[in-house]
Design a protein that fits this description.
With about 350 residues, the chain is an alpha/beta fold. Helix content is about 40%, strand content about 15%. It has helices at about 40-50, 55-70, 80-95, 100-115, 120-150, 175-185, 200-210, 225-230, 255-265, 340-350, and strands at about 15, 20-25, 35, 155-160, 190-195, 215-220, 235-240, 245, 250-255, 270-275, 280, 300, 305, 320, 330, 335. The strands form 4 sheets. The chain has a 7-stranded mixed beta sheet with strand order 6-5-4-7-10-15-16. Strands 11-8-9-14 form a 4-stranded mixed beta sheet, covered by helices on one side. A 3-stranded antiparallel beta sheet has the order 1-2-3, covered by helices on one side. Strand 1 (about 15) and strand 2 (about 20-25) form a beta hairpin. Bound molecules: 5-S-methyl-1-O-phosphono-5-thio-D-ribulose.
């Protein structure tokens, strides 16, 4: 029996026979279910409801959604087609606000469409561009993984928060890509994954994909981060990102700021792994929108209610970690070190 791995063979999102195929992540870890879409509104819904999630995976899904809208368009002129694409882009863009990869992916496809000539040629080129984006995502993750693996030592126990793995990208992963590459380089490592309430990306997705691929992985409740660090159980931390601004402020899953603060308290190196497509070189940190999600994510687990009816809930999906808590930012173009304003600028100049 062929064992599929999250390193390459299992794709989180893909294009096949003019349809978008995704792993339904709401069903994990209990069921590995693939869903297929032929309507961009279905893709938008999949992003909103976290059938697909994770910044790079959302970016590629948005691009595939636009490619579907091109196929769905009944336009007879280029102008009409571009107008249909703009409508679809607005729907896809408004699904989730924090991960900058979504607008990055949508803009890249629109650029190709606008530079096109005939309707058929535009439809073909936006599909090809979205497919190229998906293929490049895997190569970028592998390069980033190699770049980051040098920061980790043999017998390290590495903590990670949320899921920045194959399931948050097309395959291989960003932070989990670094962990995969560290193992591939021959180092013996262990991983500690935080549960990552309220949507439990750590327990449902990270623990699932690492255990599936044979890693020595342990799961902790988010409230045990301090305990594990204070008791010397953690050597280093690596997480992903949804948006990094030019000053080095990093926006990632809620709880990342707490993990970084604890790591600083205990002198534990704290790394972020993210592709250049996750950098927002225009916005200031205070301008970044933090997605606020429904209270029901917090007042229950699955069908089980765990809070009184009518309780007020504050449920931000992301937080900001300031640069002074970050030991290094791992990208496909190299590793940025403090002061970040300079080192991030250099990464883009090298790009
Ligand atoms: O709400 P999610 O599951 O989309 O949040 C995902 C994260 O915060 C990831 O850490 C981030 O997107 C990096 S993915 C490589």
């Amino acid at each position: 029996m062929i064992k599929l791995s999250f390193e390459t063979s299992l794709k989180t999102v893909a294009w096949k026979d003019n349809k978008v195929i995704m792993i339904d992540q709401t069903k994990l870890p209990n069921h590995l279910v693939f869903v297929e879409y032929d309507d961009y509104n279905q893709v938008a819904d999949a992003i909103r409801t976290m059938v697909v999630r994770g910044a790079p995976a959302i970016g590629v899904s948005g691009a595939f959604g636009l490619a579907l809208s091109a196929l769905q368009s009944k336009a007879t002129t280029k102008e009409e087609l571009i107008s249909d694409l703009e409508k679809a882009k607005k729907v896809l863009f408004e699904t989730r606000p924090t991960a900058v990869n979504l607008s990055w992916g949508l803009e890249k496809i629109m650029k190709v469409a606008i530079s096109g000539i005939s309707i058929d040629q535009i439809k073909e080129s936006v599909i090809n561009e979205a497919k190229k984006m998906a293929d490049e995502d895997i190569q970028i993750n592998k390069t980033m993984g190699k770049n980051g693996s040098v920061l980790f030592d043999n017998n390290d126990t590495i903590m990670t928060h949320c899921n920045a793995g194959a399931l948050a990208t097309v395959a291989y992963g960003t932070a989990l890509g670094v962990i995969r590459a560290t193992r591939e380089s021959g180092k013996n490592i262990k991983v500690i994954a935080t549960e990552t309430r309220p949507v439990q990306q750590g327990s449902r997705l990270t623990a699932f994909e690492l255990k599936h691929d044979g890693f020595d992985v342990s799961l902790i409740p988010d409230t045990a981060v301090g305990y594990t660090m204070a008791n010397g159980l953690v050597n280093k931390v690596v997480v992903g990102a949804d948006r990094i601004v030019r000053t080095g402020h990093v926006f990632n899953k809620i709880g990342t700021y707490q993990v970084a603060t604890m790591a600083k308290q205990h002198g534990i190196p704290f790394y972020v792994a993210a592709p250049l497509s996750t950098f927002d070189m225009k916005s200031n940190a205070q301008d970044v929108i933090i997605e606020m999600r429904k209270g029901i994510e917090v007042t229950g687990v699955g069908d089980k209610k765990t809070a009184p009816d009518g309780i007020n809930v504050i449920n931000p999906a992301f937080d900001m970690t300031p640069p002074e808590l970050i030991s290094g930012i791992i990208t496909e173009k190299g590793i940025a070190k403090p002061p970040y304003e300079e080192s991030i600028k250099k990464l883009f100049e090298a790009n």
